[in-house]
Amino acid sequence: MNRMFAIFEREMRKFFRSPVLMIMSMMLPIVQLVILGNAYGGKIRNARVAIVDYDHGPQAVRIREACAAIAVNIGTFKTVDYSNEVQAREDVRTGKIDAALIIPVQYSRRVYAQDAPRIGLVVDNSDQFTSSSIQSELQSLVDSLNAPVIQPRIVKNIAVESVELYPYVSYMKFLLAGTISLAMYISVMIGGGMLYIDDKARGVHEGYLVTPITKLELVMGLNLAGAAKAVLAGISLTIIGSLIAGLNAIFNPIADLELLAMIVATSLAFNGMMFLMMVRVDDPLVPRAMFGVLNTLLFFPSGAVFPIIAFPKWLQAIAIIDPFTYCVHGFKAILLKDGGFVAIQYDLLFLFTFGIGTLLIATPLFKRTL
Amino acid sequence: MNPQPTTLDQNPKPAGTVAIAVENIVKRYGTFEAVKGVNFAVNDGEIFGLLGPNGAGKSTLIRMMTTLVPITSGRAIVAGFDVAKESDSVRRVIGVIPQALTSDPDLTLEENLSIYAKLYGVPRAERAKNIQEVLEAVDLVKWRDAQTKTLSGGMRRRLEIARGLVHNPHIFFLDEPTTGLDPVSRIAVWEMLDNLRKTRNLTMLLTTHYMEEADKLCDRIAIVDHGNLVALGTPIELKQNVPGANVVEVHFDRETEQWKSRLEGLEGVTSVQAESAGFYRVLTSSGSRTTMQLVELAASLGENITSLSVQNTSLDDVFVHYTGRQLRDEQVKAIFTMPPRPGAQP
Predict the structure, then answer these.
(1) What domain count does chain B have?
(2) Partner residue opposite B111 with nearest CB, options A2, A13, A202
(3) A207 and B2: CB-CB below 8 Å?
(4) Residue B10 banded pLDDT, cuts 50, 70, 90
């Protein structure tokens, strides 16, 4: 045991002596949280929508007034008057404006006659996000214009009334679970993978192998140290990330215990996975080359940035065996939903089993000789 | 169950006077035979050198003896323990200094030594004392709290030596201990190793490709070439085995094809080696007589001698005698091989 702790001590002393690993393992996830959280989490503002009014009647004026109200209040778009539909369409195509609303001739008359009144909307659907936001806003506008001025006493239409269980979850909050997982992954990749192979290449392991340390002591010492570094990265990012994203789960002691359990389980799982992949590798370039591939292969299918149910079947299959999936699910359950241990028990079970399983496979593969 | 941590007093002494015995040891990588049935024994308390060029099999030999590389066939006994069957017991009684500098640059000297003391199972009560002793032995006491990366190459090598001694081993293996050091640091390491052998009654086995190092430091030398042990003896014995007591080095200002045969015809000459254009190394039983004849020969032919020197036989000559080539040629070849010219015929 003393020998195992000697390896652990060496790794941890090195880790604290050179804080670069800690900083580097948190830099990318924090930048990602701030940039992606703000970039994807916002709503469309100040899109330019052309209004081509061929009607000029009272109903056309109602539409223009409603659009002006949107521009002044929610600000999704602002309107620009066009006299020519062809020109408006061309300007949408070239990107001068984002959409064009066409109010046809006789529109007001058709409204009064209840004769299928229609207005046209030209959108640039190469930008789905902007075009669907404008469409959605204009649909709401039309729905409100269609609503009768005096509501009937008995509502005959079916309506869905949604109940949101949790306060509004911004994209940055949604992203935080993935960010914590990513920080631990990077810590394991650098602190467990790259440094392990670099030490091997520099001959540090040769120094260990001539001492009476057993294979199990050496494997356990290296893995314990790798997992401890990932735990520190996980704790740091949970605190920093929660403060940046504005989540207050960290101020609840029970949630802190649940988070700690998730962090420890994730660290063991990631470290076991990394050790299994690196146990027979000697070339220092290999972990560097694998870094990006693994990041894409494991992080994105995990539901960290997009819901798993939206994936095709083959991607969902990757998600099932991906430890990131359980890690992200567990952190979301605590940080966003305050779900308690019940919500994370299967995540913990998977992560601990995965970590111990990979370590059990890796240990016999570890060579006690050069 | 692992054996209990051992200290110097608890360690079993090597059986008899033989500290290391290697019997017909072979190492094969696929079809390539790196070590081809080598036999030798190292006596208790001696410094034994394995001398040979890069790729000769020295490091493979040392790695087999230190349990780092499995032995393909044959047997190695270190401190009375069979390396293949009792590797853990072997590890407890040996200290190993690898070729590379492997102490952690971010840790202090004391931290590096402390971690290795723990890895060797040195009891807590003895750790501080051992660290102090080895730091004194390698003259690094005042640097004990410095980070290893702040040390010079020579100091780092001394730290490596201290690290190998922190558990008071009986037998010390050093793989090219002075490679990469400047001449002053190299001499300092030689002196230190000699002192350690005397004060700690250590048996040392070192590999080197420096003739001078082997000559100055080793009680006995084994010359290894292409995985074979080609000669074994004390430096004096090895030199005596080479025909010729002196070496005459002569440089003519003009190269002619006949120089080699003319030099071989001089009285007492046992061999002539062409070093470069016009430069010859002549082994002779009488340096003074050969020199006189050589000068007369050059004068009679009207040739000029640019330089002339007479020396005693060196290990260089021993190496040439046993392997048929210069050790330094092998070093140069190992460092730089001219790439083939595009379009050149093989």
Answers:
(1) 2
(2) A13
(3) no
(4) very low
- Pair (B121, B221) in one structural domain: yes
- pLDDT tens sequence across B227-286: 999 999 998 888 887 777 788 888 988 877 788 888 888 888 888 888 888 888 888 888
Which ipTM value was assigned to this complex? 0.76
Domain extent for B270: 243-312
| Nearest C-alpha in B relative to A12 | B107
**Separation in Å, CA of A2 to nearest CA in chain B:** 7
Query: A212 to chain B: which residues are within 8 Å by CB?
Result: 2-3, 88, 91-92, 119-121
Model confidence pLDDT, tens digit, residues A288-330 = 888 888 988 999 999 888 889 989 999 999 999 999 999 999 9
**Contact B68/A210, CB-based, under 8 Å?**
yes
- Structural domains in chain A, CATH included, are 2-39+170-365 (no CATH), 43-144 (3.40.1710.10)
Residue among A3, A17, A206 whose CB faces B119 most closely = A3
Which of B104, B107, B110, B165 is the best substitution to test chain A (most A C-beta atoms within 10 A)? B104
- So what's the pLDDT on residue B326? 62
B2, exposed or middle or buried, with CB in 10 Å at 0-12, 13-18, 19+?
Answer: exposed
pLDDT of B338 reads 41
Domain boundary, last residue among B216, B238, B260: B238
- Considering the domain architecture, whether residues B204 and B257 belong to the same structural domain is answered as no
**Which of these, B325, B311, B327, B313, lies nearest to B210 by C-alpha position?**
B327
Nearest to B25 by CA among B81, B59, B65: B65
Task: Show which of B207, B238, B269 is a domain's final residue.
Answer: B238
Beta bridge partners of B231: B223
Domain check: are B59 and B202 in the same one? yes
